[in-house]
Amino acid sequence: MSQEKITIEVDGQALEAAPGQMLIEVTDAAGIYIPRFCYHRKLSVAANCRMCLVQVEKAPKPLPACATPVGPGMIVKTKSQYAIDAQKATMEFLLCWRPARSQPKPDRRYVGS
User: Fold this and answer.
1) For the chain, which residues make up each domain, given as ranges?
2) What is the Cα–Cα distance from 94 to 33, expressed in whole angstroms?
3) If one looks up domain 6-97 in CATH, what number appears?
4) Which of 4, 5, 30, 87 has its CA 20 to 30 A from that of 104?
């Protein structure tokens, strides 16, 4: 019994996918890079880092590609200014949101020796 395929568009390129397959799996198979920190195909989807945000037509906000199942006729932009701005904002948040205590301190044993 063959599984039917649906067609989606990613950055102007038509791609075939299984219904319900995660967007990041489809783009990986097509060689389209989407940045990520927490996604790995052998792990459960957490969508914690939000680095894989992409623009999906008719969606009110950027969506994480690792937790977004594909649907028929879906139009996705991974390199639009909207998607890149969302990824940059996520990176900025990840870099600045950390306790000051987590910054490395110089090892006093080697200073001035």
Assistant:
1) 6-97
2) 20
3) 3.10.20.740
4) 87
